[in-house]
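Quick one: structure for this chain?
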Amino acid sequence: MVGSSETGKESWRGRYYRLEEVQKHNNSQSTWIIIHNRIYDVTKFLDEHPGGEEVLREQAGGDATENFEDVGHSTDARTLSESFIIGELHPDDRSKLQKPTETLITTAQSTSSSWSNWVIPAIAAIIVALMYRSYMSE
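Got it. Here's what it folds into:
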């Protein structure tokens, strides 16, 4: 079924898999991943993956969308990936993949004024310059 072109390019359309089923395919004998709610059977591609087998195995049985997009795959890689689609994630399970909207990078509140962004480094530079001048004059 993987990479087959049975009755056209998208014979997988309308074929749904539950999340529980996908999660069972998380080993080297059967490796499925989810990218943009599509199910990919990448078992036969493990040895050929340019990033190594481990990259795919880490995502096996789960959602690899974010990691796939973060890498910045080429157009050729995206086209090749289409040959491994075997179906879609069932619509009822799609909400289970939603990641928490927690921000990993903390930012300063906008209440701090912009002058502090340059005054502190400027004062530090002046102090260093004065110390250097004092050292050189001795």
